[in-house]
C-alpha cells in the first residue's frame, strides 16, 4: 500500500511526533508519504527519515486563493501518485482537504487526535467530507466521534511511540550538570506545549506549597510557539520568583533531547485542567522509567494505572500537593512505581506492533475491529 498523510506542519506537538515516528518506523510493505502546507521542524524530521514530503503551499483561511491552490496541488499529487489511502490528521486537514480527496476517488481516512465537540469551525468544515474510516487515538476520543461521523467505521489505535534509551549514571550526571541540577535532587519534570490547560500553574502552586520540603527541583520543558504562550510562561516565571521558588525551577524551553532529559529525572507531573485526548509524553515518560502524576480524566485513565503512577482528582490542589510530597520524600514508593513503568509503555505503544496494527486497519478499512 502507498499511504499519503495530509497535515499542516507549522507547529510541533503530539500529532507531529506521531507522524515523525511513522516515517522512521515505516517498513517496505507499506509506503508512507506526507503532504504538508508548511515547512518547519516536522518537514525537516520527515526528510531526515528519508520519506517523500510534498509541499502544498502555505494556507490561510483569510486568503481563499491559498486554500484553492493547495487543494489543486493535492488533487494533482493524488492523481499522479495513485495512493491507496489518504489520511487527514485532525479536523483542519480533513475540513480543508477531505472533499478534494474524495473527489479524486482515493479512500479517505480521518485520524482523530482530539475530542470532537462539533463547535469549532474546523469541525463544522470537516463534517462535510465523510471518511471511509476513522482512526481514534484513544477510547476517550472515540466516544466523541459520533459528534462528527455517527455512522463511520472506526478503530482505536494508540500512537506508536519511540521510547527513550535508558541512561546510565554517567549520562544522568552529565545531563543534570548541564542544567544546574545536583545529582541527589528529586527532579520533577513536565514536558509539553505551553498551554494553560496542561496544568503548569497548578503544578507551580503545588510546589509553592512544598517549598519547605528540601531536595526537589522542577524542570519545565517546552518552548513558545504562539504569542499567548510567551505571555503565559512569563507570568509563571514572575509568579515563581515572587513566591520564593524561582531558584528551584529550570525553565529549559524548547529541547531536541527531551528523551534524555526524561531519563535524568525522577518523576513526571502534568496536572491537566482538561482531559488529555491521549498524551504521548506520558508514554515517553513511562518509557524513561518515570512514575506519572496527572489528573484522573481523559485518556490518562487508559495509560496510567496503580502500577506506574497516581491519578489525582482534577481541581483538588490539596490532593496534588499531598501526592507530590509523598513521592518526593518516599523513595521506595517512587522506585516501586518506576519499576514497571517502561513495560507499561511498551505494552501500550510499542512502535513495531502499532505500525502493524495501523497497516491492518488501513488494509481492512474498518471491516475487522483493531484493538488499541
Features:
disordered C terminus, alpha/beta, 13 strands, 7-stranded parallel sheet, 372 residues, 2 domains, Rossmann fold, 6-stranded parallel sheet
Helix and strand succession?
EHEHEHEHEHEHEHEHEHEHEHEHEHHHH
Strand residues, percent: 15-25%
* CATH class bucket of the largest domain: Alpha Beta
How much helix, percentage-wise, in residues? 40-55%
* CATH level-four homologous superfamily name of the largest domain: Glycogen Phosphorylase B
Major sheet: arrangement of strands: 3-2-1-4-5-6-7
Q: Helix/strand/pairing class, anyone?
A: alpha/beta
Q: Enumerate how many helices there are, as a single number.
A: 16
**What is the general shape?**
elongated
Rg over C-alpha atoms, rounded to the nearest angstrom: 21 Å
Short description:
With 372 residues, this protein is α/β, with parallel strands linked by helices. The chain has helices spanning 14-25, 41-48, 64-81, 90-104, 121-126, 139-142, 169-178, 200-209, 227-242, 258-263, 280-287, 300-303, 317-329, 331-339, 341-349, 351-364, and strands at residues 2-7, 31-36, 53-55, 85-89, 108-112, 133-136, 154-156, 186-191, 216-221, 249-253, 267-270, 292-295, 309-312. The longest helix has 18 residues, at 64-81.
